[in-house]
Amino acid sequence: MSAAKPFTVKSIEAIKPDASRKEIPDGGLQGLYLIVQPTGVKSWAVRYRHAGKPRKMTLGGFPAISLGDAREKARNALRMVSEGRDPATEQTEQETKRPAHMDLMPALLDEFVTRHVAVKNRPSYVRETKRIIETTLKPKWKQKLVKAVTKRDVIRLLDEIVDRGSPIMANRVRALLSKFFAWAMERDIVDASPVVSIKAPSEEKTRDRVLTDEEIRFLWLASEKLGYPFGPVVQLLLLTAQRRTEVSDALWDEMELEGNNQLWVIAADRAKNRKEHFVPLTASALEIIQALPKIKPSEDEKAKPIYLFTTTGKTPVSGFSKAKTQLDAEMLAIAKKEAEERRQDPEGISIEPWTYHDLRRTAASGMARLSVPVHIVEAVLNHRSGSIKGVAAVYNRYDYADEKRAALTAWAAEVVKISKPRNFETAEMGQSPAEFDLSSSRLDSSASTA
Known about the structure:
Oligomer: single chain
Strand order of the largest sheet: 1-2-3-4
Helix content: 40-55%
């Protein structure tokens, strides 16, 4: 039998599963083995002898435990053996000291959030992760030991989410569980992940939905009816082209509203690309912001308002799904009313589904339509692609400041024109709807000179 060859990362990744479980020795360290399950799951173990008997200790899964880490763990175990100790027994004893409830899924999910998610991610991602855990994972597995979660359990959960009409959420849950079990493997809580060979339940296509001018008008009028907090959130999403959580979680401290160069400064820890971002505020955006109520986190007279959009003063607004349903209903009602005014059948009217993120794409597309160069649009969106390179990328605060303001001002003026209410009877007599006065709207002609 030929001698075992030392493992490399490439050789490990190339190993295919067989119909039965197999153990492959590492030629680079005697006693270290790679275990390959029929499912394709790979994990590490070290074999040795203690008190004349063969012993085995699991080290964790691959790739969560890298080749280098596995060899280091194996060396430590073999060093303990040379000292007359039994590393597998000591590992078991250490595990038994851990309170039983700490190995239940709810407790470990909380620990995962505290030690991993909250440390390495933006607040908005942390909140969404907590929401999925509290609403989906904990209720399902509240008495489940982490080591008892099987591949079948995960598939069953994902199928249930798909069957209730949420295929994209099923993808998000799978991704979250994949990260959770990888973290648990790194901490030697489980030996393998039950998610590793499970594919995303649903195909996700790159969205290219852009609202038409008519849909923008319906949206603007509907948001006026919706009122605070979601109405102005939607209006600022459209006017500023920023991400939903960046707008909904905006802080009063981020607003520079005095002087002649009004800005919204999105801190690096709130920006998706971790880069501080400066959004010029047009006259239209300023008017919306200045009209917002300032809700304090307490009744203390010295307390300052924190969030632009909040109902408690202590946390940013939530409930976007319900607000979206209301917006859709208002938009459809406006569309049907206008159809009646045009003497058309309102029952044949419908509005194509859209998402909040589509407003960002709509704004970007609108600026491009106004001949704004692509690198300026990217600067407005806080994208960092190949269009912005080298030394120019260092000067963040004033990168294309004037150009960004001009782009957003032009786009605001376009939204002004698009969003004017229609009077079909007058229009039929030959007067263009664009000539009507829009004094009742928050958007006015001053946007073109902001």
